[in-house]
Amino acid sequence: MHFTSEQRLDGNVLERAFTLGEIPGILWTPASAAASAPVPLILLGHPPLGLPTMYPRLVARARQAVADGFAAATIELPGSGDRPRWDAAEQARAELRRAMGAGEPVTDEIIDALVLPLVDKAVPEWQAALDALLALPGIGGPVGYSGGVISIGVRLAVVEPRIVAAGLFAGSFVPRAIVGEARKVTIPLHVLLQWDDEANDRQAALDLFDAFGSKEKSLYANMGGHTGVPRFAGDEAAQFFTRHLK
């Protein structure tokens, strides 16, 4: 991990950009975090729109995490932002746009081609980032995962024992194989669902929630579209992580 920039945001937030090999990322920590007083970590997931596009929403979530006494970090997804183009992903997105534009059903084949290769590539990168982040002074466990792509969160919850709680954002297509993996998830979950999300299959999100094997799982549903998440929904997610990471 190589830090490329550093700035102090308003209040107690230290923001550092980094690279991990070819992967860009951002780390936010309380300025008071130290080896003698390490803080828990929340990994901030996001859709494959590029870190520059997602930054305003990510930094808002990071500020909340730091205010609650956590570090927060994110990395760029494969094929997004300034990372090399990924032809297979571009083709899958084009096929999705074509089907939706034509009013055709989004088939399992389209969803699998769009999501499964991304999960297969992104999850090992998240694990490598977690290795590097937990080696830094001032950051310790436990670790939570917050956000989307929800299929990435599901896979991480299954394969990464250092993640002890996850707040997942419903709102992306979910392959049937991921629904199968969800049955192996046992950590506490807080799932956010926008009931009228124009880009989300509500029933698929409900089926995924039902499949989770966790004894503690909560579905937090709000009326409104994909970008209409109410501000107070963040308060519920913050309380969830405070319960499980402190």
In terms of topology, how is this protein built?
Blueprint: E1 2-8, E2 13-20, E3 23-30, E4 39-44, H1 51-67, E5 71-75, H2 87-101, H3 108-134, E6 139-147, H4 150-159, E7 163-169, H5 176-182, E8 189-194, H6 202-211, E9 217-222, H7 231-245
Parallel strand pairs: 4-5, 4-6, 6-7, 7-8, 8-9
Antiparallel strand pairs: 1-2, 2-3, 3-5
Helix pairs in contact: 2-3, 3-4, 5-6
Description:
The chain has about 250 residues and is α/β, with parallel strands linked by helices. The protein has a single domain, classed as Alpha/Beta hydrolase fold, catalytic domain (Rossmann fold, 3-Layer(aba) Sandwich), CATH 3.40.50. Helix content is about 40%, strand content about 25%. The protein has 7 helices and 9 strands; from the N terminus they run ββββαβααβαβαβαβα. It has helices at about 50-65, 85-100, 110-135, 150-160, 175-180, 200-210, 230-245, and strands at about 1-10, 15-20, 25-30, 40-45, 70-75, 140-145, 165-170, 190-195, 215-220. A 9-stranded mixed sheet has the order 1-2-3-5-4-6-7-8-9, with helices on both faces. Helix 2 (about 85-100) packs across helix 3. The longest helix has 27 residues, at about 110-135.
What is the C-level CATH assignment?
A: Alpha Beta
Based on CA inertia axes, which overall geometry fits?
globular
Q: CATH homologous superfamily - what is it? A: Alpha/Beta hydrolase fold, catalytic domain
Radius of gyration: 17 Å
CATH topology term: Rossmann fold
Assembly status = single chain
Biggest sheet, strands in spatial order?
A: 1-2-3-5-4-6-7-8-9
Structural class, from secondary structure content? alpha/beta
- Poorly predicted runs are none
Number of helices: 7
Query: SSE order in H/E notation?
Result: EEEEHEHHEHEHEHEH
Question: How many separate domains make up the residues?
Answer: 1
- What does the main sheet amount to? 9 strands, mixed
**How far from one another are the termini?**
26 Å
The tally of beta strands, per DSSP, is 9
